[in-house]
Amino acid sequence: MTGALVAWLVLAVPVGVALWSLGAGLRAWARGAAARRATTGLRLIVLWRDDPTPDLFRLWLIGWPGLLVRHAAGQHVMVSVPMPDGRVLRRAYSLAGWSRFPLCYTLAIRKGAAASAALHRLARPLRRLTVSPPRGRFTDPDPRAPLVLLAGGIGITPFRALIAERAAAPWAAPVVLHHSARTAGELLWRESFARLSARAGGFRYRPRLTGDGPRLTAADVLADLAPQAHVMLCAGAGLTEDLRAGLLEAGLAPDRLHIEAFSLALAAEDRGVLVTMGEKTFRPGPIGSLIEALEQGGIAPDSACRAGECGLCAVTILSGQARDLRSGALVSGRVRACSVLPETDLILAAPGR
């Protein structure tokens, strides 16, 4: 008996050590691969696509092989979009899903103009796209505090991820979602939100159709502002400014209002302004930020985050004013082009000055 036990140990111990070493090696390889993806970007494949309306489309992106880079709910990725004239534009799109171990990234996009329109044409199943690792600070400010989410149209995208993240944490505080859209087709994921609202006591869903009626106002939201609640806002230009001003006027503390910096790009508008930089003067078409105007003119500065964080796209306004997308204030001087929108004709300092 003793001899058999010794023989078994002689065989089992080396096998166990070999298996442990193999597992450790695989874990180290996975960590290294994740680190490389986090710094060099991702080459993802369009697994599936659907078009809920003529102007909206959703993409499911997968990596090969294995898991994608983990992310916080509310973060975004930068997608590199090849344009017909040979340029490559990078656009920020919020991730519309969340998982502790993501197998795919989901994007919901309004066709719009320029890069988003080009992506609408190009992004078909099996197409490869270059996508940055997830980034951004538009994340849950305090999971233990009540949260009110205000979405306009396609601005629902980051909130779907935030709701999934809170639903996975039984101790998380309640969430109220207000989603304002012009048509029923733009109320993306309305069935799943309605089901979750019916069965989960900590989540309430308040959709609103505004095609021929009044749009969402701060007064509609005030009843849901529990003490210590945070408000997160992702919408187009006009709705963002109206809600921001109304909520602050009603007494919401500024540090409890969180606005997605690139949300304005979700609803590009023709501003009717002239932009001058150096010797070039032009009138941009529909834009969601100053950097989009500069891209249309072929004079855009470098950029990375598209969320007002990295500062690479900073330019100097010598004459005219722009509106800061976070604070709503009129600004001039040194600004981050991704986070402001022209309000008047602008004269900008030439690059390098």
Descriptive notes:
The protein has 7 helices and 17 strands. A 6-stranded antiparallel β-sheet has the order 4-3-6-1-2-5. The protein is about 25% helix and about 30% strand. The protein has 3 domains: about 40-130, Beta Barrel (Elongation Factor Tu (Ef-tu), domain 3); about 145-260, Rossmann fold (3-Layer(aba) Sandwich), CATH 3.40.50.80; about 275-350, Roll (Ubiquitin-like (UB roll)), CATH 3.10.20.30.
Characteristics of this structure?
26% helix, 6-stranded mixed β-sheet, Elongation Factor Tu (Ef-tu), domain 3, Rossmann fold, 3 domains, alpha/beta, single chain, Ubiquitin-like (UB roll), iron-sulfur, 353 residues, 17 strands, MRET
Summarize the structure.
The protein has 353 residues and is an alpha/beta fold. Helices cover 26% and strands 29% of the residues. A 6-stranded antiparallel β-sheet has the order 4-3-6-1-2-5. Strands 12, 13, 14, 15, 16 and 17 form a 6-stranded mixed β-sheet that branches. Strands 9-8-7-10-11 form a 5-stranded parallel β-sheet, sandwiched between helices.
